[in-house]
Amino acid sequence: MISKRIDYPTSVLRPSSKDSSITQKTMKDKASKPLPDRVFMSSHPILSHKISLLRSSATSPANFRSTLREITFYLGYEATMRSLTTKPVALTVPMGKGDHVDYTGEQLAENVAIVPILRSGLGMVDPMLELLPSAGVHHIGMYKRGLMPVQYYNRLPKQCDFDVAFILDPVIATACTAISVVGILKKWGVEKIHLISAIASREGLDKITSLHPDIDITVGTVDTELTAEGTCLPGLGDAGDRLFGTPMIVDDEELMHPSKRRKNSIDDSTDSN
Question: How confident is the model at residue 32 (pLDDT cuts 50, 70, 90)?
Fold first, then answer.
């Protein structure tokens, strides 16, 4: 797959130039500002508790995965309530002894696509499928070169047959990745787009809503600061690494006895010379 570089105005890519330390005054000042239109942030105490667990350095990859799953289910419930509608459907209800009664129920009216941003968005797919078992799942792979988003994977079909797309990304920091994926889905032909994220930066939300004011966003909480590298502060670290435990094994030789590693063998031969 050929990587595609996506260019954005400098104003979109520039991270906060302010000091990255978190102060009560800064948090209160920014928290007092209302969120952009069409952005919903949950205030549920259980969700706040779960997000704290997600942030914690003591949370193992296994617990990180299960906690992200629970958070996504809460957020997905809120997001679907705001983006989906129903239509009447005729059905029968068993009354016992072989009798049935006619009833007019409801079923979802829209065809739904779930679009996880690889790789961290994969951890949010299963709970969304529990809510929407008939939804299609289409993956878009993005990575950052500096602060520039680069697309490396896209398996969207040529024809768009979906009315609503839910983009899944655990963290919205600079929002450059989310902005590019929204643009891809709009070009594909999706009429309604809803972005779901556990944590978002205030600057990232302002950027994406200024460029795409017609999309909906559901987040668990909002961080008020970005670091010079363009990550949320405090954030939760690298969501992909924490989800899959990748920093735990640097390479395959970590699984071998030290005496069998090529690196050690090279070092030993160098020392002997």
Answer: low
